[in-house]
Amino acid sequence: MILIGTSEEIKLDKGIYFGNLNIDTFNTYSDRYLPVNNQEKVGLYDIQEKKLIIDYNYENIELVNATDNLLVVKRNSKEALINLKLKKLIDYKYNYIDYNDGYVIVGKDNKIGILNNEYKTIIDTSIPCTYGMFNIIIDSYKIGDNIVVSITDINGEEKYNTYIVNVKDNTVNNIKEEFIIQEEFSYTVSEDNKKYTIYDNNLVK
Q1: Is the dihedral of CA 65, 68, 74, 80 positive or negative?
Q2: How far is CA 76 from CA 19, 40, 194, in A?
Q3: How far apart are the C-alpha atoms of 205 and 202, rounded to whole Å?
Q4: DSSP helix/strand/coil, 135
Q5: How does pLDDT run across 23-72, given as a tens digit for each residue?
Q6: Integer angstrom CA distances of residue 36 from 7, 39, 116
């Protein structure tokens, strides 16, 4: 098998398999570290050292930051953010962690919240996901002092919910419309496609 992004053929010991459990394909942000499994649990393999560096203790491992080597790991259906030394930066209290440059989206009990780059709470888990965490697509964008969280229901007819979170004053503005970002401006589209609202790069109408 060829690791994505490299031309090196990787040979693993017998009984070690590429990727996370129940996933046939995988992507990695690193050409050094690779999730592997023993068909029961998932660990992390160091390609340069040719050895397992994190033991088979997890249901899933995702490398989310190759610069700082940060990992989102899952255990007992809860996710945590750790580094290669197994230091917990975000503890196992969320069902969902989406690491981004400068902020983290977290979710539990069908609600999402936002942490800053020091993993402190900007908005607690109070933004509702009406259709459940796993029946939606969550996209997020940093625009000026704002984080735009766009939630799309995929459990049937598409429905949109957009939250504009101002990280300076911790306010949340809910727009029940599709939010579309362009290079010089952004806009929302009403459900009947008849109304458009234009925003500048500071999200001012």
Answers
A1: negative
A2: 19, 13, 46
A3: 9
A4: helix
A5: 544 455 567 888 888 888 999 988 888 889 999 999 999 988 888 889 99
A6: 19, 9, 30
Which residue in 58, 52, 84 sits closest to 71, CA to CA?
A: 84
Among the listed residues 108, 24, 112, 115, the one whose alpha carbon sits nearest the alpha carbon of residue 70 = 115
pTM above threshold 0.85: no
Q: 134 in helix, strand or coil?
A: helix
Q: What is the pairing mode between strands 96-100 and 70-75?
A: unpaired
The residues pairing with 42 across neighbouring beta strands, listed in sequence order, are 37, 58
**Amino acid present at 71:** L
**Residue whose pair of structure tokens reads 């203790």 in the numeric block:** 57
| 99-118 as b/e: b if 16+ CB within 10 A | beeebbbbbbebebbbbeee
204: its two tokens = 């001012």
